[in-house]
Specification:
Radius of gyration: 22 Å
Strand content: under 5%
Structural class: mainly alpha
Shape: elongated
Helix content: 55-70%
Number of helices: 3
Distance between the termini: 53 Å
Largest sheet: none
Amino acid sequence: MTRSRFQFGLSSLLWFVVFAAFNFWLFSLGSWGGIVALTIDKHVLVAYLCMKFRVDERGRAGTPVAALPDAPAESRAVGETASLAAA
């Protein structure tokens, strides 16, 4: 049975409880402290998810990166079309 790439372990669950308790404590002191704590928690969560999904490894050599489709000519800016024509 293979392990899912995105699976929380016991340490992740404990960190979640610590952050939640810290947020509740800061909200009990005042709303501004709680808002700052939520903002910091959001950044920590995004960094953790980026590590879990290995976002930093996608652009390295040997790792395929999906090519973005070209935008239709109507949606390009006027300056962009002029620079494309000159190239």
